[in-house]
Amino acid sequence: MKVWEEVSKLLGVKPVVSAEIGARSDGGIALRAERYLFRMTQRQIPALPVMVLLSHLGGGRAHEGLQPEAGFDSIPSFSAAMQANCPTEWLFGGAIDVAIFYFLEPYSCNTMRLQNLISSTPTLYPFNDTLVNALARQIVDELSKGSAADEVYLTRLSSLMVEQSCRTIEGMTGKGMRPDTLQIGRLETVLSWIQKNLAAQLPIAELAQRAGVSAPHFRRLFLQAMSVTPHRYVLQLRLQRASELLTRTDLSIERIAQDCGFSSQSHLTASFKTAYGVTPARMKQKARLSQFSE
User: Fold this and answer.
1) What pTM was computed for the model?
2) Residues 66, 47: Cα–Cα separation, whole Å
3) Contacts for 262-270: CB closer than 8 Å, 24+ residues apart
4) Which has the closest alpha carbon to 35: 106, 133, 169, 129?
5) Residue 74 forms beta bridges with which residues?
6) Could you report the per-residue pLDDT of 28-70, keeping only the tens digit for each?
7) What is the dihedral of CA 242, 243, 245, 251, to 10 degrees?
């Protein structure tokens, strides 16, 4: 049984995405990507024979460690690199959306670089980088297209994700350190509110009030924990939601802009093209063509 099949069996759920990226024979990054959506309270994961990269895409808090007062707390946008042969135990605070990447080629340059960086940690190395999280989400979203997924694009994304993970751990990106338990709780409440209310204006003052701190303190807390400003984080979520609606629904672009909190269709178009290099109309057209070709 493959290692990812063993993990799926332990979790008691099947992955919503499961596929290989890259070629093992050319010395490049080769990964097995899996995306899980599940709800449980606790699960032990035995020592795995390969290095793993985890990225927390959404849902509730997850805690790694046998004791609640020790270990690592993860909220959406956090990631962790786990070296081979290290068992872990997880406590979950609700439904979880997570991407898991298994390293299949141990001798590629960035795979060895990442392995060396985390070799001194007892179990896993947690970190927070919004680019790594965004790349992980883009990879599993692309893979969800099945046979229409762009393999060359996926290879570039996975290589960049691993390289950015290395740079973050090396301290070359101004990485955000994980906040303490109290800050995690405050941020978790706010992040959940943002995800459920993207169509609202979401001013800093309101978000800070929900976190129970002043607006200046909230900005510092958010930037420290998420490595991005609140405004940038909200924009990223709105663009991700817009991308999902453009490719998976028949809603008009004007309606999508409204539902995702953009001030107008032109605002969505300008922001979308800056972020993804294509207009929403072009993205919607490509999604339709890929559906017809399947």
Assistant:
1) 0.72
2) 15
3) 262/238, 268/242
4) 133
5) 62
6) 789 999 999 888 888 888 899 999 999 998 888 888 876 555 5
7) 80
Higher pLDDT, 157 or 228: 157
- Strands (DSSP E) contained in the chain are 17-21, 31-45, 52-59, 62-64, 72-74, 78-82, 88-103, 124-128
DSSP 177: P
How far from the centroid of its chain's Cα atoms is residue 114's Cα?
A: 18
CB of 110 closer than 8 Å to CB of 166: yes
Task: Name residue 102's beta-bridge partners.
Answer: 32, 52
What is the rounded CA–CA span in Å between residue 136 and residue 32?
A: 12
> How wide is the angle at C-alpha 182 spanned by C-alphas 176 and 183, nearest 5°?
30
Q: Which residues of 41-73 are buried (b: 16+ CB within 10 A; e: fewer)?
A: eebebeebebbbbbbbbbbbbbbbeeeeeebbb
